[in-house]
Here is the input.
Amino acid sequence: MSDISDLYREVILDHNKSPRNFRKMEGADRTAEGYNPLCGDQITVYVKMQDGVINEITFQGSGCAISKASASMMTASVKGKTAGEAERVFQDVHKMLTGELNPDAGTERLGKLAALSGVCNFPARVKCASLSWHTLRAALKEERGVTSTE
Ligand code: ZN
Here is the structure.
């Protein structure tokens, strides 16, 4: 069990150190900003859709290791998916973070996102991990304004 925790920690540290898709996107057709006042995490998500698929997705922002790693993993996992598919991943991640979904049961669908499963043991960090997902959802729905976890 501790081996798995170590592996998960390594994945999170790696994504925090070298976040994927961490840049501003010029010409994005969807953007949304998210803010988690509990921790001070801030994020902007940029999306470019093509034929109903998330063709390109990047993010920028500042925050704790969990929020950054989660955002990095989020962009890597939804790229190439439709908005509907991304929503289903969002639902799984949300259930995993709140302890409703056993990551072992859903590993195939969640893939590397299972690395975030340990967060459910730290309720204060759940919002750090889910911030980027809420922000993505707002971007896909073209909601304007800042999405807050509160
Ligand atoms: Zn945070």
